[in-house]
Here is the input.
Amino acid sequence: MAHEQVGRAAGDLRSVVGRVLVDVWTVSAVGRDDWRARLPVVLELDDGRRLELCWRGLDQLSMSWQTIDLAAAPDDGTGRPLRWRRSDHFAVTPNRGSTIREVGTTGPVRPPGRRAASFPPDVAGLWFATDGPGLHVFDALDENGLMPSYPAPHALRLLDGPLA
Here is the structure.
């Protein structure tokens, strides 16, 4: 479950505060600029670390550090040639070179009128507040989503203490 994964990695996630987001890497087909959102998103920091994130399904987050070789061609099981490339996604470009000021988790935004008990409280994204607009890496229905917008305040939980 994503909540448990984030809980185990909370200290590592907090350690990105104060670091510069040097780049974000995504996968595309060779010869095309399309983003393969089902494959990992890699956040490259100014201290040389890389945070690798991949949402694979409801509440299924894969999070690792330094395991992906960006020089090696990724494989999605289709046999099509793929490559890692610096992302030009609209959520990434205004954050490139920005300092990360806060990190938090986001939950699903509950539609008005829905009882909290009937809506899953699970972690649905990670929010990186930066000197720029910020970067939200979230579960977009079995693949990665990227947005530069601030999550709804009631859906944001900063990682400034232990996760309950």
Observations:
- The helical segments are 2-14.
